[in-house]
């Protein structure tokens, strides 16, 4: 027996509107295990992203949210940081046409203000270019941290209160959700983390309050649409109670 979800989203057992979020971990180890530079792992990881996005309609995933670069990832070498940024740009340029024809709407979440202005412009462009699409919602978190996002949302809410547009007593969970970077998205049903690590690492802290978590030992560059299918089959068997009791 499934319980109703408190806010946002849909019952995954009843629809093809699943929201799956993924912490794509293990690219560096995958490459290092082969004696290759870490960036080779990230490039293979980008191929897996492309495959997964294309497989979303068959997997019943309407919303796919991917953790690509955290607010903590700046501590990596300049070579790796620049390599990742350039990979994000290349992905958008290469995939723009396919996203258009396949009905993929792309969004970027996180604080983009410290990023290269050219990359920021590319983010603005792809978001506008795919804004009319509704078949798959691909959201990529770049310079994203859950606490940072909640702090920015709190500032935005405080500004609305200061301006007299919002009464402090009217700040509900829904108001907070709308001020997050993910304001237009339902909450995730499932968060998957690859590579055997069992941490949340500051990802979707507010949004994943009722999500199920799956931790798999598979490294992200080995994570195929078939692996996701296996994960989803396991997820479908779980009881989701959202704090209630089974009836
Ligand atoms: C974590 O693995 C992965 C990242 C920090 C980068 C994720 C980026 C991609 C998959 C590239 C493409 C993404 C898009 C959206 C085009 P890690 O490097 O921390 O691995 P490790 O723990 O084995 O070192």
- Low-confidence parts, pLDDT < 50 over ≥5 residues? 1-14
Give the CATH level 1 class: Alpha Beta
Average residue pLDDT? 93
The distinct ligands, each listed once, are: farnesyl diphosphate
- Please give the largest β-sheet: 6 strands, parallel
What fold name goes in the CATH topology slot?
A: Undecaprenyl pyrophosphate synthetase
Number of domains: 1
Counting DSSP E segments of at least 2 residues, the number of strands comes to 6
Rg, Cα atoms, Å: 18 Å
Question: What is the name of the CATH architecture?
Answer: 3-Layer(aba) Sandwich
- Give the helix level as a range of percent: 40-55%
SSE diagram, text form:
Layout: E1 18-23, H1 27-33, H2 38-59, E2 61-70, H3 78-102, E3 104-109, H4 117-129, E4 136-144, H5 146-162, H6 173-179, E5 190-193, E6 212-215, H7 225-236
Parallel strand pairs: 1-2, 1-5, 2-4, 3-4, 5-6
The chain binds farnesyl diphosphate (FPP).
Structural notes for this entry:
This protein has 247 residues and is of the alpha/beta class. The protein has one domain: Undecaprenyl pyrophosphate synthetase, CATH 3.40.1180.10. The protein contains seven helices and six strands, in the order βααβαβαβααββα. The protein has helices spanning 27-33, 38-59, 78-102, 117-129, 146-162, 173-179, 225-236, and strands at 18-23, 61-70, 104-109, 136-144, 190-193, 212-215. The protein has a six-stranded parallel sheet with strand order 3-4-2-1-5-6, with helices on both faces. Strand 3, helix 4 (117-129) and strand 4 (136-144) form a beta-alpha-beta unit. Helix 2 packs parallel to helix 3 (78-102), helix 2 crosses helix 7 and helix 5 (146-162) crosses helix 6. The radius of gyration is 18 Å and the shape is globular. Residues 1-14 have low confidence and may be disordered. Bound molecules: farnesyl diphosphate. Residues 24-29, 42, 45-46, 49, 66, 68, 73, 84, 87-88, 91, 140, 195, 220 line the site of farnesyl diphosphate (FPP).
């Amino acid at each position: 027996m499934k319980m109703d979800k408190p806010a946002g989203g849909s019952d995954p057992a009843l629809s093809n509107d699943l929201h799956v979020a993924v912490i794509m971990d293990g690219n560096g180890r995958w490459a290092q295990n082969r004696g290759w530079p870490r960036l080779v792992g990230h490039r293979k990881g980008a191929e897996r992203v492309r495959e997964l996005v294309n497989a979303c309609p068959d997997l019943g995933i309407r919303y796919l949210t991917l953790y690509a670069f955290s607010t903590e990832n700046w501590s990596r070498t300049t070579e790796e940081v620049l390599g990742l940024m350039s990979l994000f740009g290349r992905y958008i340029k290469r995939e723009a046409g396919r996203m258009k024809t396949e009905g993929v709407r792309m969004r970027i979440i996180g604080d983009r203000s410290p990023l290269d202005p050219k990359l920021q412009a590319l983010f603005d462009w792809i978001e506008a270019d795919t804004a009319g699409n509704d078949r798959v919602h691909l959201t990529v978190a770049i310079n994203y941290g859950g606490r940072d996002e909640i702090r920015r949302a709190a500032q935005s809410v405080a500004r609305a209160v200061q301006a007299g547009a919002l009464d402090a007593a009217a700040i509900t969970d829904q108001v907070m959700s709308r001020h997050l970077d993910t304001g237009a998205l339902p909450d995730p049903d499932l968060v998957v983390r690859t590579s055997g690590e069992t941490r949340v690492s500051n990802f979707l802290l507010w949004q994943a309050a009722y999500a199920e978590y799956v931790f798999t030992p598979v490294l992200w560059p080995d994570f195929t649409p078939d692996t996701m299918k296996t994960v989803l089959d396991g997820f479908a068997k779980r009881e989701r109670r959202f704090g209630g009791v089974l009836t």
